[in-house]
Amino acid sequence: MKYLTYSGNALLAAELPDTSTVYYPPPIIPGLSREEIPRRLTEALESPLGMEPLSQLVRTGSKVTIAFDDNCQPFPPMRRPDIRQVMIERLLELLYSYGVRKEDITLRCAIALHRKMQVPELEHMLGPRIMAEFHPDQLANFDAEDKADIVDLGSTPHGEPVQTSRAVVDADLVIYVDTIQIPLNGGHKSVAVGFGTYDSIAPHHNPAMTEDTPHVMQPDGSCMHDSITRISRQLQKHCRIMVIEAAMNGATYPAHLRHLAKPPERLSAIEKVVRAATPTSMKPLPEPWRAGIFRSIKSEYAPIEINAGAIDPVHARTIAAIRPQLEVRAPRQHDTLVFGLPDLSPYSVGARVNPVLVVSDVLGYVFNWFWNKPFIKPGGVVIILNPVFEVFHELYHAAYRRFWEEVLPATTDPFEMRDHFQEKFARDPVLVDAYRNRFAHHGFHPFTVWYWATYPLRYLSDTILVGPPDDRAAKRLGVSWAPSLARALAMAREKTGGDDVAALTIPPFMYLSVDGGG
Predict the structure, then answer these.
(1) pLDDT digit string (tens) for 354-390?
(2) Read out DSSP for 78-131?
(3) 443, 431 Cβ separation under 8 angstroms
(4) CB 353 within 8 A of CB 217
């Protein structure tokens, strides 16, 4: 059986056993056009869920903070105008019409411990009009290490520190504008994490949160999300928050590339020809050319619906809206997962996927994309197809390089990392300066993504890399290596005693619902 998949910036026609199951994302649900968004947003703000209309929440003299996510989602980046630009431009028009003065509006990119967005990236997301009106004095990245901006609001009943930006606490209304692709994002996570500090994020981005419960990708049944919710409710005692959530469809690819996400039976005759020729035609191209082709892709994402109001009812509506776009039924749990990882990650926007992200994105993200239980059996095997280039962006991934060079040679165990290295990296003045002034992810960030893999690292019997020329990277990452997919499948059979193979075609994203146990 042929399985068209990625391996970095290559497309492979991988050979799987004929009995394998290849899962594809659902067909794209039609979304709102850019022209429809202003009207639908206005309607949402006039009849919000669980709150008064926006017109009753603000007036002349009201101080408003408009918050928005960074460009780690959606990805690949949207074609212009970005949906956030369209929504925020309309939101500003409404605020002005209700008497709010421009000088009383602050815009903040809620980066948490991600790297700060550079000016061209902000301009791509928000457009020239908003940049000209507000940047740089009233539009900036949040800075989790700016001590003058951080407000301490005590602790939750569980002892979790609650810290946030003065722009959140001093505002009469915080409006968080969000685009949601998966249940992980949005909801209580928006302000509580987006404006969190190392001290307030460390309690829930912690291996203990995912040691026994795998759910990090959705709120239900998640210790991590329970902690975030407690922090969010403490925040809400000190500030009023309205969220605007655009539930997004799965239109990752422009029309000429949508065949990459379709099962054979949904392909047109032309798409079948193009699909068959793609791996062969891409193979002779130099790696930089292939990288350039994929990085030029602009997604066609569109909102399925837009809701505004209080956090709980809005996010519940969002999850209900995106579930049909994400959900795929799996009849049983499988022995082995084969997944080709593209050179694409929420944490490598503008950079190559580094070796740490190769493992953490598959085990922390892809493994956890399910609704009820893992689609791999206990003791199963994950095979990752990726070249695993040992490259780290000089600016963005400074902490990741040190994690690779200092932490992984000593341990791959999340708890040992936490106990022996986490504080050193999080407080390191060089890494703090890199985060604040040189667009680097925070020193704690590589730990957070590794911690999300805590459950699968113990649940699986093995993880096997296929793509690197030798086992150097695998040894450093604490996983296995195979020179070919055929050899990796044989190794998996030896580990599991079975040959029930599943493969995922991602992107677009999908969450599996497992019907049976085996």
Answers:
(1) 999 999 999 999 999 999 999 999 999 999 999 999 9
(2) BPSSPHHHHHHHHHHHHHHHTT--GGGEEEEE--TTSPPPPHHHHHHHHHHHHH
(3) yes
(4) no
Strands (E), 327-422: 327-330, 334-340, 376-385
* Cα gap 222→392, rounded to integer Å: 31
Tens-digit pLDDT profile for residues 444-499: 999 999 999 999 999 999 999 999 999 999 999 999 999 999 999 999 999 999 99
Map out the domains of the chain as residue ranges.
2-28+331-514, 38-146+167-201+231-248
C-alpha to C-alpha distance for 480 and 494, rounded to whole angstroms: 13
Domain 38-146+167-201+231-248 = CATH 3.40.50.11440: yes
Residue 333: both structure tokens together: 């749990």
Residues 6+ apart with CB under 8 A from 23: 328, 330, 502, 503, 504, 505, 510, 512
DSSP single-letter state for residue 260: G
Please state which architecture CATH assigns to domain 2-28+331-514. Answer: Alpha-Beta Complex (3.90)
Dihedral, 491, 495, 496, 497 alpha carbons, nearest 10: 80
pTM (2 decimals)? 0.96
